[in-house]
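Hi U.,

Before I forget, here's the chain from the pilot set. I'm dumping it here mostly so it's searchable later in email.
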Amino acid sequence: MLKAFLRGVLKPLSFVPAVFMMYVIFSFSAQDGNTSGNLSQKVSEIIVECTNEAFELNWSDDQIAYYIERIHYPVRKLAHMTVYFLLAISVSFPLYVYGVRGLWLPILAGGFCVGFAALDEYHQSFVAGRGPSKKDVFIDSIGVLAGVLLVQFICFLGRMTIFRPLAKTKKEHR
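Structure:
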């Protein structure tokens, strides 16, 4: 009885991380062009400066500025992929818990996440200094695909290595 109650309460809460990720993505997209650019610029600076220090490269200020500018665009696009990777994971796991398996998982979770990416790009058309980009939706989709495939792989491994042996043990004890 307690088990059924906990399932009834906890299963719907499994979607909370997905809602949180959608909020995070929406918040980043609501930033004006300058704020968004400055954030990714700062991340690029941290990466270059840490690399310079960690490998004792002793780059000049001009070299540091050059490398910051060089990685700025890839850092922005990797951020797109990463947040949509996390969104896909946070959408796929609850769907899996609710019994969505096989080909339906990438169709439903992937379709939802790519649809959200498209709506998010549309939302950016209303933000100062920002605009929609089909290329960004494609980049987001790569993150979505990787996230959904990772969830399918992890769940498959779990079924094969943990849950199937447990089910056999339960049958043997009956």
